[in-house]
């Protein structure tokens, strides 16, 4: 009676409606991720260089992985499978953050600064994946802090970024970061359909970053 009075949860976290909404939103994200992977590689091959192709491949692959893991986690109903894919879901967020930064660090920044930032975001991603795999609940605060800090680490290279990236690319990069950060507010609060709303913010942030990378980062020969 008490549970019904609140919300009818199907897995200790979300209602059936929330799970369906979350599955659909990130299912769309997974399909868009596949398109983004293909387009990014094609653009890098046509208008960029070898480093651009490699960066585009890493970026696109991490996007597909993250949205696919999220979709499967929310779509699955088997208790053990859902528990496993919840870990995959949270670990893949680290992959997307590091994957998104890869083109900016290796194509736009290049040089020592680019490689240092590349090392930082990927080291943080690996550390986050390890901690989440050990005990996701115990390291929940660490993961949340790492998402935000690694997501905004680019500010430490803002000067060379501004010098090497057109304003349109910078605006889209910052807009994506702001959308992700605002979305975390919905991720953290416990109100009905807050999590699916967080998914929409993530999707919008990914779209901003995609166009920033596609149109401004990968083409070394300007379009």
SSE arrangement:
Layout: H1 2-5, H2 16-47, H3 50-75, H4 79-109, H5 111-135, H6 140-151, H7 158-164, H8 167-188, H9 194-217
Helix pairs in contact: 2-3, 2-9, 3-4, 4-5, 4-6, 4-9, 5-6, 8-9
Can you put this structure into words, describing what you see?
By secondary structure, the protein is mainly α. The protein has a single domain, classed as Rhopdopsin 7-helix transmembrane proteins (Up-down Bundle). It has nine helices and no strands. The N and C termini lie far apart (62 Å).
Highest CATH level, the class:
Mainly Alpha
Helix content: over 70%
What would you call the structural class? Answer: mainly alpha
- Biggest beta sheet summary: none
Order of helices and strands: HHHHHHHHH
Bin the strand percentage. under 5%
Q: How far apart are the termini? A: 62 Å
Radius of gyration: 18 Å
**Number of separate domains:** 1
CATH structural architecture: Up-down Bundle
The overall pLDDT, averaged over residues, is 90
